Amino acid sequence: MTHIFRLIARTFRAVKHRMLLPILTKKQQHQTVPGIRGFKRFGGFYWVVAGLSLLIILFQHPYDLISPVNAAMTIQTPLSTKGSEIVDASGKTILLRGVNWFGMETELHVPHGLWTRDYKDMLAQIKRLGYNVIRLPFSVQALRSPNISGIDFSIGSNNNLQGKTPLQVMDIVIEEAAQQGLLILLDSHRLNDATIPELWYGDGFTEADWIDTWKMLATRYKNQSNVIGADLKNEPHGQASWGTNNLATDWRLAAERCGNEVLAVNPNWLIVVEGVLQNVPGQQLSGHWWGGNLEGVKNSPVRLNVAKKLVYSPHEYGAGVYLQNWFNESSFPQNLYDRWQKGFYYIAEQGIAPVLIGEFGGRQVDSSSKEGIWQRQFVDFIKQKNLSFTYWSWNPNSGDTGGILLDDWVNVDTAKQQLLDTLLSGNITPASPPPTPAPSNTNPNLVASAVVKSDWGNGFCVDLVVVNQGNTSSKNWQLTLEINQASISNSWNGNFVSQGSKYIVSPPGWGKVLQPGQTFKDVGYCANKLGANFKPSAITVTNL
Length: 544
Description:
Blueprint: H1 2-19, H2 26-31, H3 44-60, E1 80-82, E2 85-87, E3 93-94, E4 97-100, H4 119-128, E5 133-139, H5 140-143, H6 166-180, E6 183-190, H7 207-220, E7 227-231, H8 251-265, E8 270-274, E9 310-313, H9 335-349, E10 356-357, H10 370-385, E11 388-391, H11 414-424, E12 446-456, E13 459-468, E14 477-482, E15 486-492, E16 495-499, E17 502-506, E18 519-529, E19 537-543
Helix pairs in contact: 1-3, 4-6, 7-8, 10-11
């Protein structure tokens, strides 16, 4: 009974904070102080309805089920670059696949959602879904302030944050991220807490203020191995130029000045440089997103004093953020590939430097809306080109993009996560050891297993893996497996035939023959959980 009363209390705290939650559109992030939107209509009756609704959600998907996962870091830092690749300290090529968790750049001065979630639980869920890095936005004003707000200190580990400054909260979040096996990319998102400035100075702050903040952070986290770098300035736009040699507006020169100051303090960090909007001599495309124009790199690359530390980072959005002209062209969506090639991908293709997509996202992931088509095409492009990314956003309260989390800050937008899962396969440690099946009598050298690659409140995704451990090629093969307390929602690269709880899975034509030592891991599915025994079992493989 005590547990029920705690849930009720938590529910109404969540509703209270949700009514005060800033709903931030990209336009608001660019132009205005985040405001309260959409909740003034709630009177007493709606308080009750909202509270009871959220209570039902909590009983269906208990908050207490979200527990920290202490996964070991599999990427060895510090990171550096090799042509178009990011490599770890062992020289292994790695892909950064992450999320943006915003809030420290707003008037709250802390990551959002802590009014209803334990920060450790939040980090554990990010890791459990398969991400390996968090782009953590901040404002210069926040890091100079003693004040934080928007935290329920009675929830779980949040009492660790009570009485702390914004900078101390950043310390704690970063340290816990390290325990969870998550990397951190720091992002100078704003100077003040209200707007994204055109340039790296303004809004009451000088260039020296901006550079000094970065030097302070580089010193503070010099020995914090999971902090991998500095995204120097979020979305330069307006007057910002590239390659004009105007000291007041040339972002490329400012990035060099700041980047070299940071590397003088901490030579281990990656220096992440975004593009501009316009004002690039000889640019081919007439329009870009804020921070998305990296055409100037071709003739005016950023020059750093420490080699192999530079990463370029465009931002890319769909029609849900703004209906740009190119979404209405008759060649849409084929025209997108030419834009991406000219705007930023040539940098990686020519081996100039790696490309990390610092922001992309949107509410629609369907195959009919302009935004859904764009987002599916872009995810496919990222996968084809092996690009790193940090998705915008983890937060649900980005007004025009939404987030990976739903408005309760607990459950996941299943369709969106399933799309992103196509980028996460092979990028994470399995959530649980794969079961070892009994080998087929026909070919004992074929071994099959299932790897849970992502797991959230009410769903999960699985890769089915077949390995030829013999010395001869296999012929055609198929899998059989048991799926009991789960319902498949979608699958890929295989034909799934149901016989009650038993499934027979056949590979595509190009995957039927496995050479000695070859591993096939391109068949999989996502499913909704119907009970605790949701994982596949009794997996066998046979030759036909």
